[in-house]
Amino acid sequence: MKISGVDLLDLKKEYGTPLYIFDASHIKRNIDGYLNNFKSNQFETEVLFASKAFNVKEMIRILIEKGMSLDCVSKGELYTALKVGFDPKKVYYHGNNKSREEIEYIISNGVGTIVCDNLQELELIDVIANELNKDVNVMFRMNVGVDAHTHKFIITAHVDSKFGVLHDSEDYKKIREVLAKSKHIKFVGFHSHIGSQIFDLNAFKSAAERLVGYCKDFDYPLVLNLGGGYGVHYTNDDKPIPFDIVSKTLIKTVEDEINKQNIKIKKLAIEPGRSIVAEAGYTLYTVGFTKKTPNKEYYFIDGGMTDNIRPALYQAKYDATIVGKENEKKDHIVTIAGKCCESGDLIIEGIALPKAESGDLLLTYTTGAYGYSMSSNYNKALTPAVVFVEDGKPKLAVRRMTYDELIEREL
Ligand code: LLP
């Protein structure tokens, strides 16, 4: 079996397993899908990659090549991007609890826009901007109160969310006072992110309607950022909406809304993460032992929750195949279990696969988002390597951790 012309057996030989594999041409196609369709003749548009989904230098290089903007939520994500020459002006920096040190780092590195999450943060940004004598563009993350139907851990806009400010709140009034007095803060617009792995575009419609309404508080055209959250295909139960339709629907929704409310906006931005990388990513494992219990059959793999925490954390579902046995009868209903000392370390439950032998390769699909970026060293597992493949050629992006690296910070 090959991905982008590269044989999986060769990848196993060269880089070992578990191994994260990214099809670079697929990532580029996804980016183009947004860039080519997220356009309006009524306002400027901007597409950011939400780098929390997958932030490594090689990914950032692709974003640079494509002219994408970037959403960072930590100093580490920003640091990685700056190291490979990403233009800081194209960065939007998020986070509900930015530290003084972080804000100093953001401002002194000339980050384009800070997405401010609360009143205390705004006050701190004001102090630091004055100390550094630098102007900063600030957007506000609003809690638009739209309940998206997704897993409760990845919903972000219910009223008690830790993220964002409610428009109808004392804090919002005070924010406007701080903005009116600030010498260095330029308020540029509103942001909202209502959740992740969402298939219902109506949820975005309500969010857009509210953001446009908030623009009436300011007498100049603002930037609106609708966040990310567009769902992807993990299993056949998921029916994602194609990029062109997502893009065009969001544009049309906002165009209709600004015309209805008679508002002019400067720019509309979105920040997809998952939908750009998820389906372009795969994880390759080696099957070890297999086990039958009275009610189950297990295939054990050489990775698990350390390289993919999503099934344990969100009951996320995945699809998989046994490499080289794609056309064999899928007459075993099995549970794919990892090697962590944890009963919940199950990657897939109840999948139909052919009989596997020890040494077979198992490939899981759609692991490109929040896999590597949420990996851990639980049980002192080594972080797997990441390889990009394109036009028949592999390119190592992250080499596998070594045991010396695993303990190198321990004194
Ligand atoms: N913008 C903001 C402000 C966000 O918080 C997020 C995701 C995104 C954009 C990108 O959302 P996406 O297009 O990737 O859905 N770890 C969870 C997902 C957490 C999402 C956090 N925020 C998972 O593995 O499902």
Structure description:
With 411 residues, the chain is α/β, with parallel strands linked by helices. 30% of the residues lie in helices and 25% in strands. The protein contains twelve helices and 19 strands. Strands 3, 12, 13, 14, 15, 16, 17, 18 and 19 form a nine-stranded mixed sheet that branches. Strands 4-5-6-7-8-9-10-11 form an eight-stranded parallel β-barrel, surrounded by four helices. Strands 1-2 form a two-stranded antiparallel ribbon. Helix 5 crosses helix 6. The two termini are 44 Å apart. The model has no long low-confidence stretch (mean pLDDT 96). The protein binds ligand LLP. Residues 50, 52-53, 71, 94, 154, 193, 196-197, 227-230, 271-275, 310, 314, 369-370 line the site of ligand LLP.
